[in-house]
User: What shape does this take?
Amino acid sequence: MTAALSADTVAAAHHKLKVRKIDFEFTDDIPEFWYAGDPFRTLLLAALSGGFPEGERFFIDSVRHFQDRITDPALKKAIRSFIGQEAHHAKQHHALNGFLSRRGYPVDSIDRGVGKLMNLFRNYMTPERQLAHTAAIEHFTAIMAEHVIMGDLDELRKMAPEMARIWAWHAVEESEHKAVAFDVYKETVDDEWVRISQMMLATFLFLTFSSIDFLRMLRRSGHMTDLKMWMNGINHYWGRPGVFRRLIPKYLRYYRRDFHPWQEDNSARVDSVKTEFLGEWA
Ligand SMILES: [Fe+2]
Ligand SMILES: [Fe+2]
Assistant: This one.
């Protein structure tokens, strides 16, 4: 635990987790480029979704392995909610992936690829390093979720309504449980070398595979050589102020010795996203 955060603050955050078993429906009237009519933005998210089901199953297993060593009641309860949330994310992204693959996008093969990689991790990495991997990727999902939540929400409004709902839901829950794997790691393993070196490896793998997957999706869309789309997409993500450019300082915080996910408290904004996009499930 860091000096800047009290145990009460973290325990309160852990108590806020809520498992929302929403069933999303992806109907045929959803346009092919459901995010701002833009292949670049749509397929970047679609490529991410491709790897979620197998990735999230791995997160669950890696945390579950250490579950019995946790004594703090707030964290024990949070672990159960974390598992419930990630299991339902996997299920709903599997449904979204089915919708994308019916339209000819190679999301199933992305998921199989992630599954193979996760099995390599299960077979060749220590449980401690597997947990460090989950904590690292959870930092990625947390800062991406934070971007969705802390942005002006216009990006979500540019999506087809059911797509906005699933991404808002996922962002809300990733934000709610962002410290669970990290706190389990701190309570059980707490090895800085393993934590930091695994973040470096996770970063390399995440960026490499997401880029490859995105290009595969783009090739399928027929927009690979659409220069205007490329310029707009690169500007949106890497321009000034680009989405990814703004995430870099947040990403780098993970390397600080006193880092804790709740040093950044965005729960007030999470509430407004819930109100606008989750309705009865808020
Ligand atoms: Fe998730
Ligand atoms: Fe997560």
About this structure: Residues 262 and 282 are 21 Å apart (CA to CA). The first helix runs from residue 7 to 15. Residues 35-281 form one domain. The mean pLDDT is 94.
